[in-house]
Design goal:
- Helices cover 36% and strands 21% of the residues.
- It is of the alpha/beta class.
- It has nine helices and 13 strands.
- Strands 3-2-1-4-8 form a five-stranded mixed β-sheet, sandwiched between helices. A five-stranded mixed β-sheet has the order 11-10-9-12-13.
- The chain folds into two domains: 120 residues, Nucleotidyltransferase, domain 5; 171 residues, 2-Layer Sandwich (Nucleotidyltransferase, domain 5), CATH 3.30.420.
- The protein binds zinc ion.
- The site of zinc ion has 6 residues, from loops.
- Zinc ion (ZN) binds next to loops.
Length: 312
Amino acid sequence: MSIYIAIDIGGTQMRAAAFPIEGYDPIRVQKIPTHSPNASPQERLILLIKSVCPENETINSIGVAAPGPMNPKTGVIYTAPNIAEFRDFALTDYLENEFQVPAFLDNDANLAALGEWLIGAGKGHDHLLYFTISTGIGSGIIVDGKLLHGESGIAAELGHVTVLPDGPICGCGHPGHLEALASGKNIARWVKKELAKGVESTLRNAKKVTAKRIAKAAKKGDPLAIMAFERAGEHIGLALASFLHAFNPSIVVFGGGVSLSGDLLLEPIRRSVKNHVMNSKFTDNLVITTAALGDDAGMIGALILARTAIEQ
Ligand SMILES: [Zn+2]
């Protein structure tokens, strides 16, 4: 029997799983911290893969989901947030040398989009937008049943569209990007600013103001917490209206930690989209929903990449 290896690399932890030829139930899964004083993330990645690879099994190929920017065609990661060692790192060459099997790489949000499209919330749709709303905002775009990569493989950075030219500075250094207004970290930042101004809220007693904590307060009726999600939803909806004009998807899927707040975020998004879209034809049959695969989306996408790229 032979297997496929799927890997999901993050700034804090790396996960690997061995999968059989068919199906989505892993044979073995392992998770380790990305950083350790004893070995580089590169060396730890090799050990991690070996730890999930059953003895006497042949690896067919390896699929990797990693944070970008990167070039999926060449398998080179340009930079990875929180992994300084991955600067201009030829990841697929590195794995192919070590294991002597084909290796494939793509952006984690792209692969999550692929996973949600083929076996998750987006099943049956050929035009899909996927967003992961967590610390930052990542995204993936399926057009005509294919992932959109662009000329250099760095397309689909929808979190970095400008929605407020004189707005707060984004993690990428530019003002007013969607991520700077509506990611989990920035929802919390806005609430903290309002609290500092003296706005009344039950969040004043919270040890740590996080998006999760704000969602909890909003569900209990806290006006500031509700306003925080209304504001994030308004900005996401405003940007989304433009994305609908560009891509005309039939479904928009929201994943990532902040999307677990469900309608608290989706309802303001739906309202805002309707206010900003040029023609109701763009929203008439549009599904706006939450992701189905949770934390596994990137890993499932990496598995699909490993299986399909080897056939091409
Ligand atoms: Zn940005």
